[in-house]
Automatic annotation (TrEMBL):
PROSITE patterns: ABM. InterPro entries: ABM_dom (IPR007138), Dimeric_a/b-barrel (IPR011008), Heme-degrading_MO (IPR050404). GO terms for molecular function: monooxygenase activity. This is Antibiotic biosynthesis monooxygenase. Coiled coil: none annotated. Residues 2-93 form the ABM domain. The keyword Amino-acid biosynthesis does not apply. Keywords: Monooxygenase, Oxidoreductase. It comes from Priestia flexa.
Length: 100
């Protein structure tokens, strides 16, 4: 399992609509083969900044099954208008899990 971690800013004038729109569009990501789960987080210090963490079976699940599919176009059609330019995204693997 890997984690896709993306940081992005939402256009100030669309901030009130964003979280509900994301909730409505989440089924698109959830339908991708290799998707496991996701969470979205709003920054406390900067109200327009968000982080999304998506767990995938592997990098290919994200970059091929999603990004190179019509599902990505559907996602972008529903959500693209909210994002400011310069979204940053990387993939991570757990190296030291908590044992609580």
């Amino acid at each position: 399992m890997i984690k896709e971690v993306a940081f992005f800013h939402i256009k100030k004038e669309l901030l009130a609509e964003f979280e509900e729109a994301f909730h409505q569009a989440a089924h698109v990501i959830a339908s991708v083969p290799g998707y496991i789960n996701h969470s979205i987080h709003r920054c406390i210090e900067t109200d327009t900044k968000y982080m999304i963490i998506v767990e995938w079976e592997n990098v290919e699940s994200h970059m091929v099954n999603f990004v190179q599919s019509p599902l990505f176009e559907e996602w972008d059609k529903q959500m693209g208008r909210f994002f400011e330019p310069n979204v940053t995204m990387d993939h991570y693997v757990t190296v030291h899990p908590s044992k609580h």
